[in-house]
């Protein structure tokens, strides 16, 4: 059975000019669990499917947080600004995982950061708590609530309308509203959003504290990089 599965995958990729890397590929039982793209997948003995951040992903994230918190080059307010996008991005990436419990809820990590912030002479317990709230913003999550692809759809079918609209369902809040307002098209290049590139929010006036809807524009990741490289008149 395993040989047949591997053969089917090899044939599928071969038709697209790709091949399986023998060094990086292995077949395992779903009950044994495996890591992929920063997640750990496993089917438990009771038949329940679980997906959590992988051990390596969690350690790498905590290391980045620790480096910022323990850095002596700047104070707690600057640290909070640097931590916020890092924490928000990590929580968004894992928003369909099981994040219950103190470990993945980051309670322990945020508490250690609070102790460091609270030691600063210009801060008290109240101001340190407010900074922790800014540094560790909450992100809604729902385990296993992935947006399923219709059974007859494929990224290779050329249906840009379907894949662009599906992209809208993968994002919450402001990003979702921007995608709807822009008819699922990039605000910079005008092309539809496909499923292979992440959507970024661009602050038109350059002020990252200005979150007014008129100042936000949904763009491709590559377009966002291009804008900030100064190769265009847009800011």
Keywords:
3-stranded antiparallel sheet; 8 helices; 41% helix; disordered C terminus; nuclease; Znf_C2H2_type
Write the layout of secondary structure elements.
Elements: H1 2-14, E1 34-36, E2 39-43, E3 49-53, H2 55-69, H3 76-93, H4 107-118, H5 125-135, H6 160-169, H7 173-181, E4 199-203, E5 216-220, H8 221-228
Antiparallel strand pairs: 1-2, 2-3, 4-5
Low-confidence stretches: 231-235
Our measurement of the CA-to-CA distance between the termini, rounded to an integer number of angstroms, reads: 55 Å
Helix/sheet category? mainly alpha
What spatial order of strands do you see in the largest sheet?
1-2-3
Main sheet makeup:
3 strands, antiparallel
**For the residues shown, what is the average pLDDT?**
83
Which descriptor suits the 3D outline?
Answer: globular
Number of strands: 5
Query: How large is the radius of gyration?
Result: 21 Å
Tell me what portion of residues adopts beta-strand conformation: 5-15%
User: How helix-rich are the residues, as a percent range?
Assistant: 40-55%
N to C succession of SSEs: HEEEHHHHHHEEH
Count the DSSP helices: 8
